[in-house]
Amino acid sequence: MTKYKLNNTVRSSSEVTLTSYLGSTESKKDERAYHIPDNENDNVNTESNRNLEAGKCHVCPHPCEFLQEPGKLAASLEKRNDKFGLNELKVENLDRNVCLCEKYNGGCKLCPRPSLAPTLALSLDAREACHACHGGTCGSPYPNANGTYPSGYPVKDTKPAWQRDLSKRARGCFSAKTLLRRIPILAWLPKYTWRSGLADIIAGLTVGLTVIPQAIAYAGVAGLPPQYGLYSSFMACFVYTVFGSVKDSAIGPTAIAAILTRENLHGLGPEFAVLLAFLSGCVELVMGILQLGFLIDFISGPVSVGFTSAAAIIIATTQVKDILGLSFPGGKFLQVWTGMYEHIGETRLWDTVLGISCIVVLLLLRKVKDIKVGSERSPSAEGAVGEGAEGGSRLGAFVSQALWFLSTTRNILVVLFCAALAYYFDTQKQTPFVLTGDVKPGLPQISPPPFSATVGNHTYTFMEMASTLGSAIFVVPLLSILENIALAKVFSEGKYVDATQEMVALGVCNIASSLVDSMPVSGALSRGAVNHASGVASPAGGLYTGALVLLALQYFTPYFYFIPKASLAAVIIAAVVFMMELHVFKPIWRTKKLDIIPAVVTFAACLLTRLELGIVIGIAVNLLFLLYASARPSVRVTRAVSSDGVAHVVATVDRALAFPSAEFVRRALRKAADPSLPLVLDASHVQAADFTAAKGIKALIEDFHARGQTIIFYNVKPSTAAVFRGVRPREFLHCACRAELDALLLRAQRRAKRLPP
Fold it and tell me: 198, 370, 385, 543: which is deepest, by most CB within 10 A?
């Protein structure tokens, strides 16, 4: 059985059938239906089959001459000639895998046409060449590589395209499939088992033990009282259980969201942070509804590396002063280092000792989980294993799990130990450490986010608060989405990540969290790793994380008073030190050296200015590179000779023609053209053009006409040709196949010799 490769899928000949055997025009067609499996790229082939049934070519609006000849075989089920296939069909049993679509320059499934490249001497029934193509005409003014063209097949639906698309989208919005996709809990809850519930309890409690000290510390990073970190750690967990699509994502306060919040609060109070969470959620929700996730694609890898590395350094810098026991205003990179230089003489010895010791212990405990317990056994030794050895294996597994749990809960263990140590010194009437102080006990009240705030003697209205937050209203949600989707892809295990649903879920989480005085939240990679390693089975693990945080708020806040600030600073530094991706600069340099420029520019701009301004500068530099590439397309020039012996110059432009490249391409073509030879502009790679490019092409045609030289456009897409004709050039010569090109070149030669055509 002949094997074909259609749309990157290997199929047998029985699966790749176009139409039944076509006899004479009077005979009735075989009405058997042969279904091609659904594929998102099969729309062109489906339309082609309809055209075949209507006796039309799928390229041109004319009847195919082969259908009018009795006894001819057109892509029949019998496959009399294995060397013939449909558009985009690769036949594997030829001398080498060739694409007939490329060999014949597109062409219809009944009438393959020759191209500039050497062609195979094939015919439809292995006896005779195609009448429509080899009879001197091409049957179509346009090529068909993969596009769709007017076919003459009657359209049943007379509604405008936008109405059909709108009605289709409206029907899709209220389908059961959309409901399951937008509220994922409806999909996984019916299949939920007690084993999944047990796994979620273990993972949720483990993540809860991690998030409590992190939340208190991140509140300090954001410049907020400690309780606001805990307020940010439970509502989002509950909401994400309903709307979240990634089981490993642990929504809550993160280092990047905290430092961005700090830079945009300007010391004006928690009300601004809560409003920022609400507005960030609104932006994320709107982006999800409008499917604007493509905006994240403008943040390239080098820009992201530069931003995260700079953010990690800034976060660590803001915590160094707590390690040293210093207290002075300022949260920016240069301000902190300047302040430390000025107040270095005020360093507190025991805070410094405690902070450095905690960092060392946290880094060591982080590696504890990698300790190998037991030794590898050979197969012969395994065959002689007895009950004692099995008991030893169980003991080794238990020790491994204990080490993993010790490594995972290292933050809470270190903080509890330091709090106990500070409490002991307090009983001895000694205060060697700077303590966290009073944490507001109890649960927050559910209320709308503040749309006005009073700071000092000035009352800020909503517009003034939004103006004060400035670009953070858009930058914080964009980076939160980027962080959450990156986390989802890390733990997706090859599964599809619905970015739209994640934006919707993150938006609802931030809006709901703002009702309980939360700062902006997102998915944290560190807690996601803990969730994944704990064996979480569904997003329901967040229920137990949120419940543990609520218990801590209700019953344990009085004990948070004794947590030393140096220990919280150590937790933050030990976490963000692994966010610095400086090691990525080496592979970037190895692959494409120019990508180092946006990475370094973003890194420096974030350190020396503000984070949101730095990432905007990095994106701008990256876009400049893209614009320069589009403004300077490659123009390849070669000499060729037609089948009639007419020498000519072939120029190939490798990308779309837009306004930045219009004048450059015009100059390049004028320079490359030989005044004594006609110029053929191969537009196979020109997928689009704009008005400025069309004006440039018109000017180019005028230039060639003024010096008596012919310019011919070959393989122009219909949409591009329409743009060129829209500016009404003097003489727009274009063709779609080699036969027409040869005729135009011969006519140009005769015109040059002043002979009658």
Answer: 543
